[in-house]
Amino acid sequence: MQALVFDRPASDTSATRVAELATPAPGPGQLAVRVAYAGINFKDVMARRGDPGYVTRWPFVPGLEITGTVVGTGRGVTAHRVGDQVVALTNNGGLAEIALADAALTVGLPAGLDAAAAVTVPGALTTAVLLHDHVARVRAGDVVVVHSAAGAVGRALADVARVRSGARLIGAVGAPARVAAAHDAGYPDVLVRGDTLADEARAATGGRGADIVLDPQGTTYLDQDFAMLAPAGRVILFGNASGAALAALPPTGSLYRRNASVGGFSLEALSAAEPATVAAAMSTALGLLADGRATADPTILSGLAAAPEAQQALADGAGKGKYVIEVG
Known about the structure:
- There is one protein chain.
- This protein is an alpha/beta fold.
- The chain folds into two domains: 2-120 and 296-326, Medium-chain alcohol dehydrogenases, catalytic domain (Quinone Oxidoreductase, Chain A, domain 1, Alpha-Beta Complex), CATH 3.90.180; 124-267, Quinone Oxidoreductase, Chain A, domain 1, CATH 3.90.180.10.
- The chain is 30% helix and 26% strand.
- The chain has helices at residues 42-49, 115-118, 121-135, 152-164, 179-185, 197-204, 222-227, 252-258, 267-273, 275-290, 307-315, and strands at 2-6, 16-20, 30-39, 65-73, 85-89, 98-102, 106-108, 143-147, 168-173, 189-192, 210-215, 229-237, 261-264, 299-302, 323-326.
- Helix 9 (267-273) crosses helix 10.
- Residues 11-325 form the Enoyl reductase (ER) domain.
- InterPro entries: ADH-like_C, ADH-like_N, ER, GroES-like_sf, NAD(P)-bd_dom_sf, Zn-ADH-like_protein.
- This is Zinc-binding alcohol dehydrogenase family protein.
């Protein structure tokens, strides 16, 4: 079978190729899925760069989300059968003609839902549901600042918040060119990150500050995140897009003085520890997409050979929406 392979860490596409690999066989609790569509995500970029914690060995096959047809089942799998149309969180290995998926992280493709749209669910929309409902526990009346508001997770969070809490959203983006996209995603107020970000966020809330800050930028903006918090506010870190070394968290005394808290979220870690929670969030996200309460408008590219350019567009900050690879 063919698969997309990263041969070594690289900042560009120089170590990426489409390779012929042995077809994997499902182990206990796994499915083999003939991939119809695979999503492109910023996690691919972080793995390609060699960021700590993403690649255990080289060469590496990226790809965290797929839709396709079950072609094999491992021992103990009863919920899915050969021929089923499924959506799966693979975490890696999805950019291939045949991918392995844990049955516990696989759900059926809802009838009538386009497979190319559904493949956008396991990553961004599932992350948004988990962040909103389980990690940040957003409530009606909360003010939520979302970094990278024009990105895939930022756009998904706008959809989820609109239908599940009605919280007030303030978007933060990295450049003025991203402001319009954040507005289009559903953020009435959009701020450009800079030295005055915390002051601008406070001004936008009449001086009170944000109840929640959702930040995928590692600790780069952590000082400003805390400076914009309302009393009893919380910061949730859920990525490290820049790849910069993570700084230490504020000392306990500082949290006491601010009446603040900080938390972290990793989709891959939660899927290993509590797969049922992640699968339930995937089902919720698919339901939102199927009934039109969340949106997906992916750019569909044909063939695995198109993946490196799409990944580079994300790395360069030039990506336009969600990229999906039509594999087979």
